[in-house]
Design brief:
Strand order of the largest sheet of chain A: 1-3-6-5
Helix content of chain A: 10-25%
Order of helices and strands of chain A: HEEEEEEEE
Number of strands of chain A: 8
Largest sheet of chain B: none
Number of domains of chain A: 1
Shape of chain A: elongated
Largest sheet of chain A: 4 strands, antiparallel
Oligomer: heterodimer
Number of helices of chain A: 1
Amino acid sequence: MISRTALALGIACLATPALGHAFLQHADPGAGANLKSPPARVVLVFTEKLEPVFSGITVSDAAGHNIEAGTAVIGGNSIVAPLLPLRPGRYRVVWHAVSVDTHRTEGAYSFTVER
Amino acid sequence: MTALLAVARAIHFASLMVIFGGGAYAGLLRRGKLAEPSAGALRTLFAAAASLALISGIVWFCLIAGEMSGAWQGSLAPEVLELAAAATRFGHIFLARLIGLLALCAMCIWGRGTKGPALAGLGGLLLASLAPISHAAATGGDIAVRGAANDALHLLAAGFWLGGLIVLALLICRRSTDGQALIGPLRIFSLWGTGVVTLLVLTGVINALSILPLSAMSLRNPYFQLLLVKIGLAAVMVGLASLNRWHLAPALPNGGDKEVRHLARSVGLEIALGLLVVAIVGYLGTTAPH
């Protein structure tokens, strides 16, 4: 019994914790970034797999106009939004993500393209 | 609406546990030719549990669809429900489970006899099929499969305990003046119960470690606080189960109505604590672990 318990605990210790909700793990461009050249896309990587039909992103300029060049590609644990050619200015990224265990998270951040 | 979701989840878990654990224990009693609750009481219990499982399963799905859409009104919007059913993992699992739940209702409400093993099989399948949409299965790949398998075992072990206890309570009510007839059923329950509780503890530890990193095991984390309350209640249940096995059950052969009453009270308290644990599980699934 002791050896079985030790084995089970050993397996448990090797397990990587699952977060349960899809939290934003990495963003490119990142929050508050000041870029010398305009990005061609926004890439968001999350901690969990996403449900594409209930996840989404909008990227807008200072005037509130959407500047995505097409539909965002949502698959696995990432969202990739292609962008129109950007002029210098401040841009806002607003996203919402639903993980495969159905929990919804959302967030927003800005980045700047310098002159 | 989060409260309603937690209630729907808890009712769904509890009703399937009653069918799985109760069906399995009733099957063991029949196989051992031991005293059983009346067929009418078992049929009423399983029919009520199956109906509740179906209704709570549908409510759960609608509320989750609304949550995924970002607005609770989505729970009643046909286009949101259709999208959730057709294009999400939860929806695909829900549709498959809906067929199983309808079959379970048909079996419990219109079927003849109590069909313990068949009921336990279908109830267990429906209970275990909740694991792929659990927190433990949120990450893709091997970890998700391992997490879901572990969670399924945890649910089945808990189901046997709670469902078996409820059938045992029905039996005690039926044989309240015949302590002798309860000895065999109690022995069977204790025999299986020891293995089940061991499995429950092991899978529970693995579950907790797979959901919570060490940094989240802090008393400032509400999820962890509630998890500790759940573990505490489960520990009291283990204490009561030990009391039944080592103190109250041995007193039955030479005892009378008083000994049976003590046992009934202890089993009733154990069931109440079990339902409280399931209520906590219902709520935990609606919140972020950290």
